[in-house]
Write the structure tokens for this entry.
Amino acid sequence: MALYLSIFTQILITIVAVSGVYVLTGLTGMFSLGQAAFMAVGSYASGILVVKLGVPFPLACVLAVIIAVAIGYVVGFPTVRLRRDYISLVTLGFGEAITALLNRATKLTGGASGFIGIPKKTTFLMALLSAIAAIALVSWFKTSKYGRQCIAVRSDELAAKAMGINVPKVKMTAFLFSVAVTAFSGCLYAFYITYVDPTIFGWKKSADWVIMVFFGGVNSLTGSVAGAFILSGLPELLRSLDQYRSIIYAILVLLIINFKPSGIFGEWELTFGNLKKLGSRRSRKALKEGKN
Amino acid sequence: MKGGHTVSLQIVVNGLATGSVYALIATGFSLIFNVLKFSNFSHGALMTLSAFAGYFIAAQRGLGLIPTVLVAMVTGALVALAGEFIAFRRITLHNTSPVYFFVSSITLGTMFEGIVTVKVGANFYNYPQFFQNATIKLGNVVISTSDLLMFCCSAVALLVLAYIIQKTRVGRGLRSVSFDRDTASLMGIDVTRTIQFTFLVSGALAGLAGVFLGINYTLYPTLGSLVVKGFIASVIGGLGSLSGAIIGAVLLGLIETLSISMVGSGYTPVITFLLMLVFLLVRPSGIAGSNIQEKA
């Protein structure tokens, strides 16, 4: 039971991070390959604040998120005005820089051997509530004015500009929002595992998150969350195939992109209205079959 | 005073050698960016894959450097061609949103790296010693033989590439496809064939760069993450410009060597990253000044 609980908690933390990635990639069409590095900033900042400075845990989380957003602003400022490719390249460089910094600043971060001795504060309930809060926040963002502007920018930047949308500002808002959510997931992670080291925050993890978003459906928050749930739960089921995990993922995703580019869920969202529609369609179908 | 000169000359020589490998990475990446207008993130993993192919097929059997390089280049070219077919063909044909190129290339990279990891685990491998004399002394400057070879090979490869692109028929086709794919196809250029050719060349460059990186460092499954140097170089030089990529790469090599000699290798990625940010602020179009706008 404890094992399942631990697996679920980690999946929930991943879901928090992926809902941040969804804002950036799903809504705005930007790709960050340094998203995991922002998670690292969240983990390390909150960990250092609590362990070395004795700041209480909730305040440390808030401060860590603020620090991450400030760093995100520096990274985003030169890049949001440019072509979208730049943000992926720049965040990739950012990830490398952060890893180097964490490895190097041994006194503060413990260097390559990791930062240890973080107290265990994250519980299953807390992770669950955070995941629900993150999903609620993101779905609110999606339907808000900003979210719709983001979708406009993703679909056609030039047309969005012509409609009077301030494209760099929208991109920046989405970027910082996703950085904040991801950094928060980093806090949860650090205080759950109680140990962080620089190697787990490479671009591989960011790429995995992007893949999760696309697996479920790039236009659907439901799909992204489901993708995160399935793809981060799958390795636990396939323990014996651990080596082949990334290859299996890759083949799955390539198939989806080639043959159903909108992902498993397409644009479908889990709402009461949509559920009712689904139910009525099914009952209508049943009725028809009954007649035949 | 004389000592200072030698040290700085030494830095220039080392920087040029490092920069020439970065130039190989950056041009391989920029070629694809030029033609298909997306950042190919599978390039790094392709370098790893072909470097390991060179190791297992040639170097391990005691064949010399040249067979190793050839095997790696051929592997790189063929795998890139296969990758184009698996991951990018349908997206190009259906004109789906360019974001899918991005995801496809990341996924392809993950797959290549996964294949390498399955074969070698997390172990480190070393190419055998290819040269009898590890260093050559020119005046006061010591050049390692592999650095010299790297520089020469890269220069030759890039010159051949420039000749192909500027002077030959297929190169002209490549340039026109990169300019406007639809019009090029109306003019009777086989776009698919041209894209395949681009991937072949880019893959061969990846193989060459992979072997050199393997000689310089060691062979390990995440060797491909060094591709980030190529990305930084092409951002500095101007995304999508081949000559800009080469200039950016040489500049990056020089700055990196300088920074290593001054603050050590640990902080160097931080410095190159900050340099890239400054470049984007001051001159977002890069050294070459070709700023490709997002197409409507």
Remarks:
- The longest helix of chain A spans residues 167-193.
